[in-house]
Amino acid sequence: MTGVLDYVSGNSLLHRLNPLTKLILAFTLCASCFVTTQHLLILGIITLNLGLAAIAGIIRRSITFLVSLLKFSLILFTIQVFFVPQGTVLLRLPLALTVTDRGIGFSLLFVLRFLAATMPLTLMLSVTQMSDMANVLTRYLHIPYKYTFVLTTAMRFIPLFSAEMTGIIEAQIARGIEFDTRNFVKKIRLLLPLCVPLLVSSVRKIEGGAISAELRGFNIRTRTSAYKQYGFILGDWGVLLVCVLLIIAAGLYR
Q: 238 with 21: CB under 8 angstroms?
């Protein structure tokens, strides 16, 4: 089972775009939702993300990820709505808690921005190989390869650690430990001891990765070491034009 950060192979337009273009598109979508304060425009950005996911053939993964974010967003909305006392009071609750119209508007904007800013990055990682991203960051943005290596390696290890933790939990369940309890405190007490084997396994993987990098000449790699060339196609210029129009629209509808 693939995770939300795993690369999905394909031959769609998004897959064939220059990795630099996909990076610019992702950050443009993120920046636009913070520039504008219009709820409808941010909803449009979320819809655009889903449309791009459909083009890339990963719409099911994006919808699943969006549903997961919505569950967390409900918690954020519930907490945030009580911290904006300004505006017309719509509801008074015990402990001097109030719900205002401005509080609802601000909390809704906060949640929509959270959704719209998270989805583009996961979409970019789903259609871009980590090696291509590292090469583009080093060649075009002149970021030292050591920093790009740390970034891409951290992204690679996230699904590995998740799978490792799942395996440890399944091993504990096979030994009779009940992890499906609804008691939050009890569940935390059961998970904390599992951090030790996860840490040991993580250190082993990191040590193996460090040895492999040294054997492949990590210390002598430069900006021109990558052999793969990344050209710009017509679709890249079209996407860049969309990015410019999106920034202008976000600036106008503040």
A: no
